[in-house]
Amino acid sequence: AVQHDGGNAVCFYTPEMAAAATRRMLLTVHLTHAIERNEMYLVYQPIVDAKTGRVVSAEALLRWNHESLGAVSPGEFIPVAEESGLIVPLTDWVLSTAIGQMMRWNAEGVLPERVFLNISGQQFLRGNLTLRLEELLSGCPELRPHLGLEITEQAAVRDLKVAVKTLGELSALGIQTAIDDFGSGYSSLSYVQQLPVAKLKIDRAFVIDVPDNPKSNALVRAAVGMAHGLGLTTVAEGVETVEQRDFLVSVGCDLLQGYHFGRPMMPDLLADMVREQRQPPIE
Ligand code: C2E
Ligand code: MG
Ligand code: MG
Ligand code: MG
C-alpha cells in the first residue's frame, strides 16, 4: 500500500510498520484490562539533594507486568494509552494509587518532601486535571505541598495557553510542577519563561555525555544557569556515575536522580532509604 502525506512525498508501508501496528493493537487490547487485573504498579526512584546526598524527593514510575507479554516498558505502552484514550483511566489510577501510598508513608513518618508523578501531555491539556486532584486531595490536604507533577516540554509547548493556565491552577493548590525531559523537545527556549513551573529536569540525553564531551558540558552548564536565572530549581536525570555526579555538583545542579543513587524501587524500599537517613547516629 502507498500513503500520501499531502505533499509530494510518498511513504511505503513496510512489513516492519505492519508488525508495529499489530503490536500496538495487541497492547491496546491487553491495556484495556490491565487495571482491573492488577497488572499495574508504581515504583519510586529517589531524587537526592546534590549538596548533601540526602533523598528529598521521589519520582513515581508506572510498571505493567502482563502474564503473557511480560514486562512492557512505559516508553512503549504510554504512547499506546495516549492513542487509544486509555491514558485517562490510567492517569486516574496513577494519581489515586500514588496519593494512597503517600498517605501511608505520611502515617509512618517516611513521606519524602515531594513525590513527583508523570502526567502525559494529553491528560495535562484535557482541562479537568486540577479538579480531579482537588477531589482526590480533599480528604488529605496535608499532602498537597508534598505532591509534584512532571509534564514534558512537548506537552507544554503543544498548547502554551492551556499549559500556563493549568500550571497556574496547580501552583495555587500548592502542587509543584516540573518540566520533564528539558532539552529533548527541539522547542524554542522562550517558552520556559512563560511557564509558572518550579523545576526543570535536564534530560538524560545530556547527562549521559558529561563530563567527557565538552559540548554536553556546556549545554548542561547553560541549562542550569538559565534555570537559576529564571528562579527555577534544576534536576539532572539519568546520573549513573561518580564522574557525572561530580560534574553536576560543580555546575550547581540542585537535585540528582539516577541509578547511581537508586533505581526505581518498590515503595517499602524507598521508605527504608528515607528512614535510614533520619535515624540519629548510633553512639
Ligand atoms: P521520565 O519521566 O523521564 O522518567 C525517567 C526514566 O529514566 C525512567 O524510565 C527511569 O527508570 C529512567 N532512569 C532513571 N535513572 C536512570 C539512569 O541512571 N539510567 C538510565 N538508563 N535510565 C534511568 P521508565 O520508568 O522506563 O519511564 C520512561 C518514561 O515513561 C518516563 O520518562 C515517562 O515519560 C513515562 N512514564 C513513566 N511512568 C509514567 C506515568 O505514570 N504516567 C505517564 N504519563 N508517563 C509515565
Ligand atoms: Mg518524569
Ligand atoms: Mg524525565
Ligand atoms: Mg526522560
Quick synopsis:
By secondary structure, the chain is an alpha/beta fold.
Structural class: alpha/beta
Q: Number of helical runs?
A: 11
Please estimate the helix content. Answer: 40-55%
Mean pLDDT: 93
Could you walk me through the main structural features you see in this protein, from its secondary elements to its overall organization?
- Residues 24-278 form the EAL domain.
- Putative oxygen sensor; modulates the activity of FixJ, a transcriptional activator of nitrogen fixation fixK gene. FixL probably acts as a kinase that phosphorylates FixJ.
- This is Sensor protein FixL.
- By secondary structure, the chain is an alpha/beta fold.
- The protein is 44% helix and 22% strand.
- The protein has helices at residues 15-31, 74-84, 87-108, 121-125, 129-137, 153-158, 160-172, 204-207, 214-229, 242-250, 267-278, and strands spanning 2-4, 10-12, 40-49, 55-66, 70-72, 114-119, 147-152, 176-182, 199-202, 233-236, 255-257.
- The strands form two sheets. The chain has an eight-stranded mixed β-barrel with strand order 3-4-6-7-8-9-10-11, surrounded by four helices. A two-stranded antiparallel sheet has the order 1-2.
- β3 and β4 (55-66) form a beta hairpin.
- The longest helix has 22 residues, at 87-108.
- The radius of gyration is 20 Å and the shape is globular.
- The protein starts with a strand and ends in a 5-residue tail after the last helix.
- Bound molecules: ligand C2E and magnesium ion (MG) (3 copies).
- One magnesium ion is lined by residues 181, 203-204, 237.
- Residues 59, 118, 150, 180 line the site of one magnesium ion (MG).
